[in-house]
Amino acid sequence: MAVKIRLARHGATKKPYYRVVVADARARRDGRFIEQVGKYNPCVDPAFIELDLEKIDTWIKNGAQPTDRVNLLIERARKAE
Description:
Blueprint: E1 3-12, E2 15-24, E3 35-41, E4 48-51, H1 53-61, E5 65-66, H2 68-80
Parallel strand pairs: 1-5
Antiparallel strand pairs: 1-2, 2-3, 3-4
């Protein structure tokens, strides 16, 4: 089973709010997921990023592949710490 760490979109039209989730690569974008590992809100200034880096590291070590956008969020979160 291919597992990805990706964004699931929530919120209203023109006001997105994302959850960072671990999901099967075949699942729909906002569909079933295995675990929620963070939150991201790009609509506020500065953008709100809250990630559980320990869980993310565990999932990556077990073979999960983060998307390009999630990789950028992980890098920003690590710099903030």
